[in-house]
Design a protein that fits this description.
With 280 residues, the chain is an alpha/beta fold. The protein has helices at residues 3-18, 39-49, 65-77, 141-144, 159-169, 185-194, 230-240, 254-264, and strands at 26-27, 59-60, 81-84, 96-97, 100-101, 117-120, 126-131, 135-140, 148-151, 174-178, 201-205, 207-209, 275-277.
C-alpha cells in the first residue's frame, strides 16, 4: 500500500465516518495473473496499523464469481451482451479514444464458435452524471469506447462488471475514489442501468502525483507506506487532502488523530482539483 492509496483510503473513510456511514473493505482480487502473493494480507495489515476500522468482514471479490457470472449470463440471455472472438491483433488498426481502442462492433451479429470474450452492447446516447467534487461529467460510449468487455477470453470477469455487481450486493450508496477512475464511471452507470441496479453517488478526489506529474503507483516507483511512522504519515495524508491539521496533532495517538480528522473533515476543500503533487 503506497501513499497515494493511503490518501484515497483516508478520504473515503473520513467521508463515511463524518456522515455516520459504514465503511466497507473489499479486496479486488479477480486478476490472478497480476496478483502478488501476500499482497492482500499486507494491505490489511497496513490498514490496521493506521487505525482504520471497517464494518463487517473483509470481502474478497474472487469469492463472488458466481454472482458475476450470473450477471453476465443475464445480459447475454437478454441480448444485451454477446460473444466476441476479436484479438488485439484484429483490432490493432482501429482508432483509439481516451478509453483505448474503440471497438467497431465486428462480432455484434455473431462470431464463430470457440474461446471468446463477452462484450456488452452500448449506444451513443450521452451518459452524464454530476460528481460531487468534479462537477458534470459525460461520455458517449459507442463512439468513445465501443462495446466493452465484461468477461475476458480466459474466462476471468472484467473489472467494470465485477465492481458493479459487488457494489450492488454490498448495498454501496456512496463511492469516494481517485479521479483516475472517473473515466470508468459512465461504463459502470451503463451496466447499473442494464442490470436495474441503483446507482451510487460519486466523489472523485484528486490523485497524488510525483513532481513530474506521474501518478503515484507501483509502476512509477511509489514505495510502500511506513508501518513505523504512522502518525506522521497520517498527518501528511490529511495535509494532502487540504485538512490543515495542527502541528501538535502528530504527537497524539492515532485514535486522537482520527477523532480530530472526522470532526473536522471538509471534503469541499478538494472541489475541482484533479492532482496534488506529493512533496515529502
Amino acid at each position: 500500500m503506497h501513499f497515494g492509496s493511503l490518501v484515497a483510503a483516508v478520504a473515503s473513510y473520513l467521508d463515511a465516518r463524518s456522515n455516520s456511514g459504514r465503511w466497507l473493505l473489499r479486496i479486488e482480487d479477480i486478476d490472478p495473473p497480476r496478483e502478488q502473493e501476500g499482497a492482500a494480507a499486507r494491505i490489511i495489515e497496513a490498514l490496521q496499523h493506521y487505525g482504520f476500522e471497517w464494518d463487517g468482514d473483509v470481502i474478497y471479490q474472487s469469492r463472488n464469481t458466481d454472482a458475476h457470472r450470473s450477471a453476465v449470463d443475464s445480459l447475454v440471455e437478454r441480448g444485451l451482451a454477446y460473444r466476441c472472438r476479436c484479438s488485439r491483433r484484429d483490432l490493432a488498426d482501429e482508432p483509439r479514444g481516451p478509453l483505448g481502442t474503440i471497438y467497431p462492433g465486428n462480432c455484434r451479429s455473431g462470431c464463430e464458435d470457440g474461446e471468446a470474450a463477452i462484450r456488452v452492447v452500448t449506444n451513443d446516447e450521452t451518459i452524464q452524471f454530476r460528481d460531487a467534487l468534479q462537477g458534470e461529467f459525460s461520455q458517449r460510449l459507442e463512439s468513445q469506447s465501443g462495446d466493452f468487455v465484461i468477461r475476458r477470453r480466459d474466462g476471468l470477469i472484467a473489472y467494470q462488471l465485477a465492481v458493479v455487481v459487488d457494489d450492488h450486493l454490498q448495498g454501496i450508496t456512496h463511492i469516494v475514489r481517485g479521479i483516475d477512475i472517473i473515466d470508468s464511471t459512465p461504463r459502470q452507470l451503463w451496466l447499473q442501468t442494464l442490470l436495474a441496479y441503483q446507482a451510487p453517488r460519486y466523489k472523485h478526489i484528486p490523485v497524488i502525483t510525483h513532481r513530474n506529474g506521474d501518478k503515484l503507483s507501483k509502476l512509477t516507483g511509489a514505495e510502500a507506506i511506513s508501518l513505523d511512522a504512522v502518525a506522521a504519515t497520517l498527518i501528511a495524508a490529511l495535509s494532502m487532502l487540504g485538512q490543515k491539521p495542527p502541528a501538535s496533532l502528530a504527537r497524539n495517538p492515532v485514535s486522537i488523530i482520527w477523532k480530530w480528522a472526522i470532526e473536522n473533515w471538509k471534503i469541499d476543500q478538494l472541489y475541482g482539483q484533479r492532482a496534488i503533487v506529493n512533496t515529502p
